[in-house]
Amino acid sequence: MSDPFYQLQWLRLDHGLTQQSQTELWICQLHCAVPSIAGNKWLKLKYHIQQIQQHNKTGILSFGGAFSNHLLALAAAGQHFGFSTVGVVRSHQPDPANPTLQQCRQFGMQLQFVSPELYQTKTTALTLAELQQQYPDYLIVPEGGTSATAVQGVAELPLAATPNGPADLLCCASASGGTIAGLIAGSKGTPVLGIAVVKDASLSQKISALLPAPADQWHWQLQPELTNRAYGKFTADTLHTCLELATQQIYTEPVYTGKALHTLLQLLAQGELAQYRRIAFFHTGGLQGLDGLRYRSLISEAQYQQLRFGG
Ligand SMILES: Cc1ncc(COP(=O)(O)O)c(C=O)c1O
Fold it and tell me: DSSP states of 61-84 as a string?
């Protein structure tokens, strides 16, 4: 496995609200040799892949929703590095036209569908043991790729090192908590703000559990996204922010990065981040999710084109 397998690109977001608050907002994008593994995906997967290579395992089994960025990244990594992949998908019925799952299959991933009710139990210790029996030579990686191994990979990202000097706040979208835990672990004292794009009352606890001890040495905070939408749902305002960012060649989707940046801009407008002069935001990828939004008519073709390619 070659590393650097990725390249970082820094973009400074120029917005009325950043000007008004006199705050520099830097977006750190992680481009990967295999595009589907861009963003946080490579950092979360790299040491899992190293583990299976070192232990001569057949592949990796993991979990996700029907439009999961993580499953697609895993499938692409499997094809690129030559290991097998199994995706346990939270979905009642296999939909052959689902663009994410179509790509997973094209990358060679074997898919197992489980109803959302059963899916909850699939991640309990008992059923994990059953899955391990069924796939004895596979490494089982939790949903979202989040584990202590993923934290180790994300901690390597030099997010505080913006082109204009050290950031005084690091920020990212947070769902299963692995990415923010990695940023915290690698932050060397710079505070970290996670913007929760899921409604999960236990998210803070999950993040704490992923952090290397002692927990009280870390400076971080979790902020619920401010539009108060369920995971996967978004407002016209969030979409508008994504479309606005696309005009500056900052491409986002409204479920993770766009939703988090929308909240970050609102926090700047409210003066909540007045003590910070230079913020570094980790762009966690996930642009393939736009294909699924278009497929479900949650965005129009014109919006899709603008969000994906600008204009
Ligand atoms: C594009 C994108 N951004 C952010 C996240 C959230 O990362 P985490 O689940 O590690 O909190 C995810 C989920 O993995 C994602 O797909």
Answer: EEEEETT-HHHHHHHHHHHHHT-E
